Amino acid sequence: MAGVPATLSASAAQIGGFLSKKPYAPPSWATHLSPMPSHTFSLGHFPTPIHMWNLPNLPEGTEVWIKRDDLSGMQLSGNKVRKLEFLMADAVAQGADCIITVGGIQSNHCRATAVAAKYLNLDCYLILRTSKLLVDKDPGLVGNLLVERLVGAHIDLVSKEEYGKIGSVALADLLKKRLLEEGRKPYVIPVGGSNSLGTWGYIEAIREIEQQIQRSADAQFDDIVVACGSGGTIAGLALGSRLSSLKAKVHAFSVCDDPEYFYDYVQGLIDGLQSGLDSHDIVSIENAKGLGYAMNTAEELKFVKDIAAATGIVLDPVYSGKAAYGLLKDMAGNPAKWKGRKILFVHTGGLLGLYDKADQLSPLAGSWRRMDLEHSIPRKDGTGKMF
Questions:
Q1: Distance from the Cα of residue 41 to its chain's centroid
Q2: What is the pLDDT of residues 153-191, one digit of tens each?
Q3: Is 40 in the same domain as 176?
Q4: 345 and 204 belong to one structural domain
């Protein structure tokens, strides 16, 4: 039977609410948006913490705080879980027995979707984009793939060339048609969970930030900074910040497509909620893709390592690593733009993606040595002589 078993749902509602289905009531400032979700599933650990981030070499008087959405869970983590809370509720409401979604070979979204589906007793089908050289080979058990395969996701590989020619929507529709012919009831979630329904995940996150600020009188943010990979996160943050009491300026660093693509895509998402707003007015998008999606320069990887060593915050190389790199580079080049600003950086997770970069990170990682045991281990008889 599709969806969460009634006994699990009832028990979850009694013990903390995790994995329970709940009626959704939007923030007061978002009640005019439409369509409005009716329910969510509790899939993440919220609220995620906000704390000061002691980054080096900031402009004078500038503070950077960090919203730890990387701590929203381990298997089901990062910004994806917020969108999936709404998308999975819709899938179950429609009677789906399986989920289809699409992404790169190390997609955080696909891994999170596979876990969420299994939590809710649904099968998951993943269409993963890889290189032409690897499309006919076992994809291995590295990073996100390890979790996906452990939870039993069905994986279909396509080459980047096939993906570019056919497109994610047509690929998902092709698989959906095959599953329908087999008598299944598939529900398609777009790349990154980024549609108008998924956008509610970060509208809700703004309410969470608003409540955290209200509990701390000295916290007020001028800017919100975040990575952008599919558009849904920045659409929700920008729309929520504009409509709520926050009024922080949202800055997005795109890690794949160009800014103009994302302005158009975000426009489609907020038009889908009948917001009446212009994407150019609510978010500033800058290009941070570098060599390309999920590709890193040695300088970017060194930055991830240096920030981890300096602050203890481990950034993923695909999303937040590039966004933080872009932010600090902009601060160095335009210090007056950021001087005296109070900035909230949203860490969208993706730690498992680091495993795919292990070979590139190896020369940068911390040193090691064999422990020197000479003249240090006394004999059991206490004479002090070596064994």
A1: 17
A2: 999 999 999 999 999 999 999 999 999 999 999 999 999
A3: no
A4: yes
| Both tokens assigned to 70 | 């990387």
Question: Could you report the per-residue pLDDT of 217-255, keeping only the tens digit for each?
Answer: 767 899 999 999 999 999 999 999 999 999 999 999 999
- Look up residue 72 and give its two tokens: 């929203």
Sign of the C-alpha dihedral, residues 256, 75, 84, 236?
Answer: negative
Catalytic residue status for 9: no
Residues 202, 168 within the same domain:
no
Residues in the chain: 387
Per the listing, tokens 């108008």 go with: 196
Give the phi and the psi of residue 15 in degrees, each rounded to 5. -115, 80
Rounded distance between C-alpha atoms, residue 304 and residue 341, angstroms:
23
- Same domain flag for 230 and 330: yes
Name the catalytic one among 20, 72, 77, 107.
107
Host domain of residue 91: 78-191
Residue 207: count of CB within 10 angstroms of its CB: 19
**Shared domain check, 246 and 150:** no
Residues 244 and 117 reside in one and the same domain:
no
- Number of neighbours of residue 240 by Cβ within 10 angstroms: 29
Contacts of 138 (CB under 8 A, 6+ apart): none
User: Considering only CA atoms, which of 7, 91, 9 is closest in space to residue 42?
Assistant: 9
* Phi/psi of residue 100, nearest 5 degrees: -120, 135
Q: Which amino acid is at 176?
A: K
Same domain, 166 and 119: yes
* Residue 336, in any domain of the structure: yes
How far is the C-alpha of 280 from the C-alpha of 264, rounded, in Å?
Answer: 9
- CATH code for the domain in which residue 276 is found: 3.40.50.1100
Residue 78: which of 232, 188, 213 has the closest Cα? 232
